[in-house]
């Protein structure tokens, strides 16, 4: 694979998740690899969109050329009309020219959120991406096979016991100090936003020791 430090596949027209007003910073990439703890990578936020920054992370940290498109269309009152995403990565030994051509093809089609609003499924969008562009320089006809389809469901594995155990690590004296001024402790999951409330009775065992 060629060493191109300045290669970041970018498809700004394909997504509407522009990050405005955040400036420079860092972003954490959390990957659940089935191990005891998730893998956490950190990358700089250098661009104006999530797909660009995530693509840069994969190239700089894992040396994998990547194209990412995110789409989310909502109404004025916050109701989600449609959402979807695709990610294309080169396998080891693959020609980087392929993803360069695919990037140009992705830029040539309509934005992903418009395609989804028009009723196209993800499979139809894949067909559109891999179909022939009918140009001499950028002909892109690739056979592909759908290996697996999974139904995605929103799910968070947070629970009351986990938060209670975390709060207990504050120790007896700190808990006593908190409950001297508060009737309850409220904890909020940073992933799903669910809130859990605990009273002094929930920590009776540790407070009596």
From TrEMBL:
Keywords: Chaperone, Cytoplasm, Disulfide bond, Redox-active center, Zinc. This is Chaperonin HslO. It comes from the Bacteria. GO terms for molecular function: protein folding chaperone; unfolded protein binding. The keyword Zinc applies. GO terms for cellular component: cytoplasm. GO terms for biological process: protein refolding.
